[in-house]
From TrEMBL:
<keyword id="KW-0456">Lyase</keyword>
<protein>
    <submittedName>
        <fullName>Low-specificity D-threonine aldolase</fullName>
    </submittedName>
</protein>
<feature type="domain" description="D-serine dehydratase-like">
    <location>
        <begin position="261"/>
        <end position="351"/>
    </location>
</feature>
<dbReference type="Pfam" id="PF01168">
    <property type="entry name" value="Ala_racemase_N"/>
</dbReference>
<dbReference type="Pfam" id="PF14031">
    <property type="entry name" value="D-ser_dehydrat"/>
</dbReference>
<dbReference type="InterPro" id="IPR001608">
    <property type="entry name" value="Ala_racemase_N"/>
</dbReference>
<dbReference type="InterPro" id="IPR042208">
    <property type="entry name" value="D-ser_dehydrat-like_sf"/>
</dbReference>
<dbReference type="InterPro" id="IPR026956">
    <property type="entry name" value="D-ser_dehydrat-like_dom"/>
</dbReference>
<dbReference type="GO" id="GO:0036088">
    <property type="term" value="P:D-serine catabolic process"/>
</dbReference>
<dbReference type="GO" id="GO:0008721">
    <property type="term" value="F:D-serine ammonia-lyase activity"/>
</dbReference>
<dbReference type="InterPro" id="IPR051466">
    <property type="entry name" value="D-amino_acid_metab_enzyme"/>
</dbReference>
<dbReference type="InterPro" id="IPR029066">
    <property type="entry name" value="PLP-binding_barrel"/>
</dbReference>
<comment type="similarity">
    <text>Belongs to the DSD1 family.</text>
</comment>
Length: 370
């Protein structure tokens, strides 16, 4: 096994900071997620991690047909590359309703869906969908414990279902739940918590299917829980980070075997004290919502300790007598890859140590066309 797999043959050709995507490892991660769930048809990956046409096409080439995104730009990207089954994993409100419906109208051959968790939002969407002669697929968003969005499973969710069911231009496709708050390092306890949270949802679906004589899909399971949900029948899994992976999940989910497939490259740009080194990996180049010590892991400099962080600089304690020099190249695994990717206009694609392509991070924009 090559423990220096990340090293470039010619790093001097790449300016820093830079986002590197290792093509073969990303492809391997796609095969791993398919193997985990059994078939590509059981996946609806979230593209918030990669935000690029080329990465999505890798998944399409592997047989994945359905995707989801959280922004209009993300789902427009998907439509533009030929995806025919797209979920806006967000409840459209305000001008976003008009943007969503304009996109739907422009791609009549695409099956679009969105999330809803409140009747007011449903009625507003229905009114405009009716006026634009569109029929929108709807997944009712369930609050599975994150307390971020969604309606609580049970009576509140059933009542909302019945209300939306009466709306002419909305067609309920099923339920959507994200239980990413389940992160117990004890795998068995995490699975038990996942099963307990899903039980009332399963019962609710069965009752509504019997009452209305229909089949309801359930999209369940982000990265932390999709292996559990994949064991159930009639479940679509929706992880996203698997394609690039990151240190946050690698350390928190050791049972998952995905590979680091995206790194940040940076350089030592200053030696401000006898024990400090400064690299060009500021807030603008690495996700920085976590505490200072939990933002990046350097593969070729694991002993460096973050001291301070600002927009363009990351200062690290190297110890007295260190050997670092101006221009030294460091390869870092982001703790959180998704917002890190959004910080870069492009990803530099690497194969066998050399740059072979550049992928634009198209959907980092809030607006592409619509």
């Amino acid at each position: 096994m090559n423990d220096k797999w990340y090293q470039l043959n010619h790093p001097e050709k790449i300016d820093s900071p830079a986002l590197l995507v290792y093509l073969d490892r990303a492809k391997e991660n796609i095969q791993k997620v398919i193997k985990e769930v059994g078939t590509p048809d059981r996946l609806r990956p979230h593209i918030k991690t990669n935000k690029s046409a080329e990465a999505c096409k890798l998944m399409m080439d592997a047989g994945i047909k359905a995707f989801k995104g959280a922004t209009i730009a993300e789902i427009e990207l998907l439509a533009s590359i030929g995806v025919k089954d797209i979920l806006l994993a967000y409840q459209p409100v305000g001008p976003k309703v008009d943007r969503f419906l304009a996109l739907v109208s422009d791609y009549p051959d695409v099956k679009f869906h969105c999330l809803l968790d409140h009747i007011n939002a449903a009625e507003a969407l229905n009114e405009k969908a009716l006026a634009s002669n569109n029929k929108i697929g709807v997944y009712i968003d369930l609050n599975a414990g994150t307390n971020r969005t969604g309606v609580v499973p049970g009576k509140a969710a059933v009542d909302l279902f019945e209300q939306i069911y009466q709306l002419e231009s909305l067609q309920i496709t099923g339920f959507h739940l994200y239980d990413g708050h389940l992160r117990n390092p004890d795998l068995k306890l995490r699975e038990i918590a996942c099963d307990e949270g899903f039980a009332p949802i399963s019962q609710m679906r069965e009752e509504l299917e019997n009452k209305h004589k229909l089949t309801l899909d359930i999209i369940a399971g982000g990265t932390t829980t999709f292996p559990f949900h994949s064991k159930r029948e009639h479940i679509t899994c929706a992880p996203g980070t698997f394609i690039y992976w990151d240190e946050g999940y690698a350390s928190g989910l050791p049972e998952q075997s995905f590979l680091y497939a995206a790194l940040v490259l940076c350089r030592v740009i200053s030696l401000p004290t006898s024990s400090y080194v400064c690299v060009d990996l500021g807030y603008k180049a690495i996700a920085s919502e976590n505490p200072l010590a939990e933002r990046v892991k350097f593969l070729n400099a694991p002993n460096l300790v973050p001291v301070s962080h600002s927009e363009e600089h990351l200062v690290l304690e190297a110890g007295e007598g260190h050997a670092y020099k101006i221009g030294d190249v460091l390869y870092g695994v982001p703790i959180h890859i998704c917002p890190t990717v959004a910080s870069y206009q492009e990803a530099i694609v690497i194969q066998k140590g050399d740059q072979i392509d550049t992928w634009r991070t198209v959907a980092r924009e809030r607006r592409i066309t619509f």
